[in-house]
Specification:
By secondary structure, this protein is an alpha+beta fold. Helix content is 20%, strand content 27%. The protein binds zinc ion (ZN).
Length: 117
Amino acid sequence: MTTYDPKATTPTMVRAPVGATVTEVDWVDGHTSVLPNALLRGYCPCAGCQGHSGEIKFVPGNNAEITALEEVGAYALQFTWGDGHGSGIYSFRYLRRLGELAAEDAAARPAIPRGAT
Ligand SMILES: [Zn+2]
């Protein structure tokens, strides 16, 4: 499992403009994660999308329009999508990991260990 410096998982700014297809997260360490919304939706970590065990798999084809976005505690973001789905809690650590995945290979959609969320 990847371990991160706390600076790498502390956001300073989240940009998810209405109509945009990507969400950007700026981190304290100066990095910006560019997260395609379709990637975020496909990797929704909730039990409804992923079941209760196994790796986190990319689930393609669901609505990826963000209609609401809120911070959960001080550790995660919760997105609500255009089809009303909104039960996924994305920890900052998980968002950072998804940003790396998006940057590494735009086409690859590997399974992610559940511990990464
Ligand atoms: Zn879900």
